[in-house]
Amino acid sequence: MFSDDALAELYDALDTPVDSRGDLAFHLKLVMSAHSVLDVGCGTGQLLRRARQCGHAGRLVGLDPAPGMVNQARKWPGIEWMLGDLGSVRYDQEFELVVMTGHVFQVFLEDDELRTTLAAVRSALTDHGRFSFETRHPGARAWERWTRDKVVEDTDPAREVVRRWCEVETPVDGDLVRFTQTFASPRWDQPQLSRSTLRFLDVDAVASFLTGAGLAIERQYGDWDESPLTDTSPEIITIARRA
Predict the structure, then answer these.
(1) Tag placement on the chain: N or C end, fewer CB within 10 Å?
(2) pLDDT under 50 in the chain at which residues?
(3) In which domain, by residue range, is 172 found?
(4) How many Å apart are CA 44 and CA 30, to the nearest integer?
(5) In what order do the strands lie in the sheet with 176-184?
(6) Beta-sheet pairing, 176-184 with 161-168
(7) How many domains does the chain have?
(8) Can you give the pTM of this predicted structure?
(9) pLDDT digits over 55-105, tens only?
(10) Residues 6 or more apart in contact with residue 222 via CB below 8 angstroms
């Protein structure tokens, strides 16, 4: 199993560049239009780093519960990198924008955990603030394509080839999908595993949780080109505000 720091370093090296990721390009436009931004589950901080490089002069705060991710992010100064989550760090109407990228919304597996998180998001927003996030649309059944034969090859920081693939635990029961991501390299004695569980909520469930937290949906899209949301869209991209 990866150490936290080793996985974070590899994640940053193998991740798709910001300019090539539809989700980060989408959120970057919102970040650049807000003076104060909180990135929940910021990972290694790609989004906020890019915003600063593009000339964002306001307050940028990245929050993540993984020490390895935050350690990577802190290599870039000029941004507030915070270790923790919205259950341990409280903000009171401090941000014009709260974002969750990389499908962070899906890591909240229990109803109470999600309710607590959304209530904290609402608390962090200014009166006219916005909350932007995405979750994979269950109608597209993305997990069915996370199979052993879909191998991706990348180059790690040591310029060695790293092969990676996903395998889903079947059968998938309800809205929780459990899977492993495997990384293999010639310079390692054995493959390294990362285990994850994601929750796939449908459109109605997303709306219900937002309403219950005092948030109102402002607009939604089905993909990063801002196409309409349909029953088979790959994403449920949502921008909400304080109700």
Answers:
(1) N
(2) 1-3
(3) 139-199
(4) 19
(5) 152-155, 161-168, 176-184, 192-199
(6) antiparallel
(7) 2
(8) 0.92
(9) 999 999 999 999 989 999 999 999 999 999 998 899 999 999 999 999 999
(10) 137, 228, 229, 230, 233, 234, 235, 236, 237
